[in-house]
Structure formats: C-alpha cells, structure tokens
Design goal:
Layout (H helix, E strand, L loop, with lengths): L9 H9 L7 H11 L4 E4 L6 H15 L10 E4 L3 H14 L7 E4 L6 H9 L3 E4 L1 H9 L10 E4 L2 H6 L3 H8 L7 E6 L4 H10 L4 E4 L10 E7 L5 H12 L4 E4 L3 H13 L4 E4 L5 H13 L4 E4 L14 E4 L6 H8 L9 E7 L4 H11 L5 E2 L28 E7 L3 E4 L5 E3 L17 E5 L3 E4 L5 E3 L49
Parallel strand pairs: 1-6, 1-7, 2-4, 2-5, 3-4, 5-6, 7-18, 8-13, 8-14, 9-11, 9-12, 10-11, 12-13, 15-18, 16-19, 17-20
Helix pairs in contact: 2-3, 3-4, 6-8, 13-14
C-alpha cells in the first residue's frame, strides 16, 4: 500500500517523500482513512510505530481543504503529557505542512511564555500543548479554544498516570461540543475507555500491535549484578563495545545525575535529562545526543515516551522501572523503523520481583545472564507465586468494523482515585461510560478491571518530584504547581495497582 492510496493530497505526498518515507506503517494505514472521513478514533499503538504521522497527516489535509479565515483561530489542538513529546510533534507538524498554508506553534511550561504568546497572537491553525501551560495561557486570556475542530489526546495513558485527568476535563469544557476527537494510547485500560466514553462519539477502535508487545527487532539481555557494580559494568559495556549512542534509564533524578557524572569522569561524554533540568538544558542534552557530541544520555522515564531518536542502537536499564509497562516504552526507544536494537537490563538482587512482573506482562521468559568478572554475591531469588485475583469490571460492548482480529480479556485492578497534584491533578474517578466501539484493524488484548480504593496525596499534602508539565505562571524556569512542598515519593506497591507517580516528568 502507498501513501497515495490513503487519499492524501499531492502537497502532503511531497512532504512525505522529502522525509524519505515510501510506505505507510500499519497504524497509519488503519487510522488515516477513517480520520479523513471525520470519524472519532480510539487508537492503540506502541512507540516507534509512526502514530504521530497517523494523526498529523490527515489533520493537515482536513484543515488545508477548508477555507482559511482572515484571523487564524486555533482549529486543531494536540495535547501531550511532556514537553519533549510536544516539541517532537510540533517538529513533525512543521515538516509535513511545509507545502501547505498552515500555521502551527507549540506551548509548554518551563520556558518564558512571551514567545508563545506572540505566536498565538499572530494566529495559528494547529496548537501543540501540554495541559498545564495551556490552562495557564487560557486563564490569562491569551488564547481561545472556541473554534477547535479537531482534538488529539496523545499518550493518553501517560497523561492519566501523571495526574492530568482533571486538567483534561477542564480543557474539554472549553471547546465546542461538535468536533472530531482522536485519542492515542499505548494501552486500553479501563480508565482510558471511560475517558473516551465521556467525550467521544461512536469511536472506531484501531489497534496496530498487540498490547505491551516488545519490539520484535529488539534483542533483550538481562544481567544479574550487584548494585555497587552496575556503574563499572555499564562503563565496560560502552567502552569495550565502542558504543557511540546509548540511552540509559534510571528510576530517580538523583541516580541519573550521579551516573552521568561518573561516566563523564570515566571518559564517556554523558548528560542527564529529567524534570529538574531546565527546559534549555533538556533541549541542549537531546541535541547533543542526536548529533553525536554526547555519547550517553542518562534519563528518567520522562524520556521513555516522546523522544524520536532514529536508529538508536542501545538502551540500558540501569534500574528497572517500578511499573512493568514502562519497560516496554523504554526498550521501544530502540529497534525502530525496521532497524535492530539492543536493550540491556542490569538487575540487582532486590529487583528480581520486577523482572517477574515484566515477564508476566510480556508473556515471555527473560534469560538472566552473569557477566564474567561481575558475579553477584547472591543467587537470583526464586519467583514468588502470586494469588489469583477476581475481576470486578464489566466487559465493554465492541462492534467490529473493518478487518478485525480477536479480542483477549485480561483483568487487573485499577485504582479508583489518585491525586498527584496538590492543586488540580489526577482525579481518577470512574465518571464516564465506556460505550461501544467499532473495531478496525488487527485485534489486540483488552483489559478491564474492577474498581480499587481511593488514594490521594493532594489537597495541600507534600508533593512528589515535579518537573514535567506542572509549571504555572510566567516564569522562565520550571515551577511546581500549587505551592505545595516537594519531596521524593516512591515505594512499590504489590499486585496490579500502579505505584504513585508523584514525579510529573
């Protein structure tokens, strides 16, 4: 299948060819036609599948076909959870609209708002934004959403994890009720379906790949090593392998800084990227990593989604994530666009329960190896038998449309309410009806779950680490919202519930 067969205009085809693409990816093939038909879309796609072009290309065509108003109002809004993802999507919008009369801009926190305000005043057709800065500027009467025709929620699952549900609901109330809605998510949790059912009209369900499937071209290796030897092993792997571009993940910002400093002292050019870094420092680190001046980028999970680093050959999990799904997003940074990649995980004795959780999610066994010279002081612990849990959720009604595959059903307990922002973050109540979805494309698994308890860390309570898009006001640097004290939140919860993600990277 070609891009032309999807019904795209010559101007868009010219831009696609200039970027070097010849054939659409599965998510593009399945999503573009119904979007051009002005249907609401609920799409599931893993990282590296080309989903951004899957909604940007048809959006550009729809907007370019309409008569342009003299004063350009915001006609399309793309909401993203992180600054990096917003910046990347904006770059894609600019590239694909090169031969169209379409204006766009991006707004996010952590930087001076004045250039963003000037761009809005000049008029834009497409606005890419993070929720916090969008509401800030709206409350300052710097923008209007009264003429939005197309709404895109990208990485919707990540936005819910970061406590943006209340912000999303506020933004939905600011737009016309009659509009096209496109929701993209890596997973279709119960909460995602409830959110979709609260504002989407008879959405078509599009799935490009089965849920939580690791990239087929990614070679996964797991080394059992003592925690104190991890830095030495990383240094050896990079130096002896002469690796030139390596993305390393840590759980915390402190660990990222510490590892980056040690690698640099060992002669390996390295920079850290996380929410406590200024936006300028984060942008500079990414640019250095992409152009080769920085050999290693050490990141928290802020970088697990939204970073577009072509042909990244190596990803290292210096520490495993507390949430198994984040492992998939981490290793999805490599093995993209048909290229092979390698994902290495360093597992200390206290992290083997996390390995078992990842194996359960992936439905595959990960072979744990021992590197010569880095033998651990203790053998890996045996896997713990987990008690069986009952599901309390109801199976949503699906109506198939187009080519469909089978649907699996997984149960998992989902938290009832979680608040991570002292002022306005993270209300996770079940206040939307999931509704029925028409299914288009290959089938993946569907997960439902019973309601959980209530968990709150807001309302003036101390906050977890902030740094992604929690900024408010006119400052030129990152600020935490709500004025609440900040501190490290953490801890791991057993079972199927997710840990409290106070870190809004």
């Amino acid at each position: 299948m070609s891009f032309k067969s999807l019904g795209l205009s010559d101007s868009l085809l010219h831009a696609i060819t200039k970027k070097g693409y010849t054939e659409p990816s599965p998510i593009q093939t399945k999503a573009i036609p119904p979007i051009l038909e002005r249907k609401d879309i609920l799409a599931s796609a893993q990282t590296g599948t080309g989903k951004t072009a899957g909604f940007v290309l048809p959006m550009l065509q729809i907007l370019s076909e309409a008569k342009q108003a003299k004063r350009r109002p915001v006609r399309a809004l793309i909401l993203t959870p992180t600054r990096e993802l917003a910046a990347q999507i904006y770059e894609n919008v600019k590239e694909y609209s090169e031969f169209l009369s379409i204006e766009s801009t991006v707004i996010f926190g952590g930087v001076n708002q004045n250039p963003q305000v000037r761009a809005l005043r000049n008029g834009v057709d497409i606005l890419v934004a993070t929720p916090g800065r969008l509401l800030d500027l709206y409350n300052q009467r710097m923008l209007s959403l009264s003429q939005v025709e197309i709404l895109v929620l990208d990485e919707a699952d990540r936005m819910l994890d970061m406590g943006f549900l209340r912000d999303i609901k506020k933004i939905l109330a600011l737009m016309p009720a009659r509009r096209q809605n496109l929701l993209f998510s890596a997973t279709f949790s119960t909460e995602i379906k409830q959110l979709a059912g609260s504002f989407m009209t008879d959405p078509i369900l599009v799935e490009a790949t089965p849920k939580n499937t690791a990239a087929e071209l990614v070679i996964q290796k797991v080394y059992h090593v003592d925690k104190v030897k991890k830095t030495s092993l990383v240094t050896k792997l990079i130096s002896q392998g002469n690796w030139s571009q390596v993305l390393i993940f840590t759980r915390t910002k402190h660990a990222a800084n510490k590892l980056s400093e040690k690698l640099t002292k060992n002669g390996i050019a390295s920079l850290a990227i996380h929410g406590n870094k200024s936006q300028g420092a984060r942008t500079k680190a990414l640019e250095g990593f992409k152009n080769g001046t920085t050999r290693v980028l050490v990141a928290t999970d802020i970088a697990a989604r939204g970073l577009d680093i072509p042909l990244l050959p190596h990803v290292i999990n210096f520490e495993l994530p507390n949430v198994s799904e984040d492992y998939v997003h981490r290793i999805g940074r490599t093995g993209r666009a048909g290229a092979s990649g390698e994902a290495i995980s360093l597992v200390s004795h206290d992290e083997h329960d996390l390995v078992h959780g990842i194996e359960k999610l992936l439905r595959q066994k990960l072979d744990i190896e021992i590197m010569e010279g880095y033998e651990p002081s203790a053998a890996p612990p045996a896997a713990k038998e987990e008690p069986r849990r009952s599901s309390g959720g109801r199976k949503p009604d699906f109506r198939k449309g187009g080519s469909g595959g089978g649907q699996g059903q997984r149960s998992g307990g989902q938290g009832g309410q979680r608040r991570t922002d002292g002022r306005d973050g993270g209300d996770r109540r079940n206040d939307g009806q999931s509704g029925g979805f028409r299914k288009s494309g290959g089938g993946g698994g569907q997960r439902t779950g019973g309601s959980g308890g209530q968990r709150s860390s807001g309302g003036g309570a101390p906050r977890g680490n902030s740094g992604g898009e929690g900024s408010r006001g006119n400052s030129s640097g990152p600020r935490s919202g709500g004025g609440a004290p900040r501190g490290n939140s953490g801890g791991q919860r057993s079972g199927n519930s997710r840990p409290n993600k106070g870190n809004r990277d």
